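sanity check both lines:
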Amino acid sequence: MHDLRRQALESGKTVSRKARSKQASPASSRPSSQPPSRAASRSRAVSRADSEEDEAGNLSDETSFSTNSIDELLNGDGSDPITDAWRADLADRIQELLDRKRSSVQGREKCLATYVRILTAQYAEEDIRGKEAEVVVAFLKSIKAEASERETILAMKALAMTVVTSPSDLIYEAVCGPLKRVISDSTSVPSKTAAIHCLGTCTFFGGASDDEILDNMAYLLEIVASDGSFIDAQDEADPVVAALEEWGSLSTLIDDIADESEEAAEYFVDQLSSSDPGVQIAAGENIALLYEKSYRPLTEDDGGTEFGEGDIISDPDEIPGVPKLVKNYDVYRRTDVLKDTLSDLASLNTRRLSKKEQKAIRTNFADILDSVEYPTHGPRYQNAISQDTGKRYGSRMTVRIHKEGVMKIDKWWKLHRLQALRRVLQSGFVKHYEANPIVFESLPYTFPSANARMVC
């Protein structure tokens, strides 16, 4: 990868839009949150509820790189199906990508689609090892040129799959500038949305420092706070949902986000009044994550410290070895008002939304409200007592790893990472979880109770 920076990196560090906007104007008012309802983010919201009904269903049917599903993006393009000769096919596609002078837009679209399909279905780290620099440069050419919306989106998908398959500490620095230019300057909303997700993936796996992660979290928060106008996508729900989702994913990499929590919580609470259910749910999940992260284990060093009433939480089942938790900071000043808002959403009844959309809102916000009230409670937490164990069921969300294994999603940070990986890997999640150490290490493997519910 040593040639990647020289070949692909633009001169100088990227200056965030936030910094530039502060230089241009001394102050700005926070806009109202009223992105219109859009089919893509609506279906994303509905799919999260559908997964609870169908044990074989996905957490989300939406690709992070298109308003259509990745299957719709890749299928029907005339590209060949994957066969046992996929290694040779992948080598041919890489060579075709590098030989850009002889290619057409349609040819590159087909080639990129096949590349993405192979890297999704197979763990191909050995096959692309040593070629990452060249293919990243090829992807960046397609991303910068924006010859067609489809080629641009597929190139960003291919870039994300490459960094997840073969991470490098040099990729982030090479791709950050071009991706942010697409986010800011592209006239295509789907391309902006795809670039936001690709930026999140490359920041997570591509070698970004803590300061760069925090800078991108601030950048994403500007998109959320402005309802998309910060990137010339005013009142477009999809880029706002993408920014919310990637902010949540990146925040799981930072142990202490006390300094960022108050401002972020303000904007997330604002988005609860959005008319788009996808925006509301993504904002709510980030709020739950902030409350979860605001507590830390109680240690012996805290022995002489006086804490306020309710600041210390004990394990309800008193399991040996499980430490008490203590509140480290306040997430939101008006938690009482927030609880009322979450309660209203958890019991939402309106003709404006379909029954499935209402169910998605109610199901998710019942969990979010529970976690704000009891930050130790993760997604799908149930207080009911199991007759078999005599203990609470707790979080009952799990992911099936084929027929033998399951992964318990009992924390919001785990759900955010799971959803981020599923957005990129789609149907290849299980394959990569089993074979790709980078994916496996992103989520712990535990054995949940027999009563836990499968969501994938």
